[in-house]
Amino acid sequence: MTTLVTGTDTLTRDALTVLQPGFVGTTAPDWLLRRIGEGLSSVGLFGRNIVDPEQLAALTARLRAERDDVLVAIDEEGGDVTRLEVNQGSSFPGNYALGSVDDVELTRAVARELGRRLAACGVDLNWAPSADVNSNAANPVIGVRSFGADPDLVARHTVAYVDGLQGVGVAACTKHFPGHGDTSVDSHHALPRIDVDLDTLHARELVPFRAAIAAGTKAVMSAHILLSALDPERPATLSPQILTGLLRRELGFEGLIVTDGMEMRAVAATYGIERGSVLAIAAGADAICVGGGLADEDTVLRLRDALVDAVRTGELPEERLADAAARVRALASWTQAHRARGAASVPGAASQEGTAPGADIGLVAARRALTVTPGERPYTPMTSAPYVAAFTPVANFAVGDETPWGIAAELERLLPGTQTGSYADGSVDAVLAAAGERRIVAVVRDAHRHPWMTAALDALLAARPDTVVVEMGLDEAEPRGALHLATHGAARVCGRAAAEALAGTAS
After folding, report:
1. Neighbours of 441 (CB within 10 A)
2. Burial call 418-440: b when 16+ CB within 10 Å, e when fewer
3. Among 71, 93, 215, 225, which residue's beta carbon has the most beta carbons within 10 A?
4. Can you tell me the distance from the alpha carbon of 427 to that of 411, in angstroms, rounded to the nearest whole number?
5. Which among 213, 200, 215, 216 is positioned nearest to 250, based on CA atoms?
6. Tens of pLDDT, residues 44-60
7. Catalytic residue set
């Protein structure tokens, strides 16, 4: 039976303090404001909460009218995973594009501008960057969210990203500890397992996290993965060996440990969100992220009461909950101090061209990330409207399917009359019929992971050798087509850079 507790005692406030819940809607519901008044210290924002910067700024101001030190968090990676521009596509390329350029000053400038925009809207904790080393090209959930497959490259860009965000007062949350790159399962759906030895773990997965910790990342997000070499029983989020033993003691991290979403099936399907949250705090986590799927008051109350019950029954030491709450408050104090100083409005010292606040640094980066591979014959820029065939895989949960991607909209801007169709299978006959005499641009995403997509390209190129191929995911497959473009991500600016190249208008 759930213990009934008052809204004023220290234990209840600490239990509320460690929660980072979401909500539904573009204005703060009454229940959320009430719980903030009772001690809730953090709120997580998702695409469903955001219309535009003005609305977002009004929303965060309303939250802080209730409590001025509330942490407002967001899952804004840029690139394929965007919440600020969920309905338009991101103005910033993602990690894979930045890693492909391998200019740490560019990465720092992109993160700084993204952080400046977040801070201007009242957001002060970003669940980013992803420090996962994408050692498994077939990984269904990381992919272009990673800077790349080389640990040292990932480390230096993770550091630059952390520096960029935190330089304007937005706390970075480096994820997904101890590394989600070598998985073949999406933890939103099931529990991934990584069976590598400790030497491999230290030489590969942990390299970027060590660097981020040394650079002062304010937070680290745990992964719902089973790392058998350290804990064969529990996923990292629930493992004392991994969170307290490895992250705290061995790596020396003193900041905030945030869980990945507790409603994800890698944890929820086995433990449930209440017991999972208790085990996570006991293992060393300080903040429970929940709200991507469960975003209501009942969820907050269930988790609050589960934590209080666990303390009262002796399952969760009261001092552990108090320590977790203190770490949340410490981060809130840091972000509050930066807001008070107006750090986000202070011009930076970056010398990279186009890095001043307000500059279109995202497009600069996307253009630099574009790789163009000519076919056997010289390519002549398009002057008439083409037909864009987008071969569309099922989006992973982190990316979502509400954010537009591709190049059709950008090509339409440059070549009015451009037409497009979306194909979820290898129906090349339908593509040819729809295209007619128009030149075809085939847009793919991770073609190497989808045999049906590869087969469709084979058939399309056999029928129409002048087809242009644009890869907007990992560029693992061999370049082919009359012209092959690798954008290294599917952000809106990546699509624009590709469209400019096709139309011959690239700057």
Report:
1. 29
2. bbbbebeebbbeebbeebeebbb
3. 93
4. 23
5. 213
6. 999 999 999 999 999 99
7. 188, 260
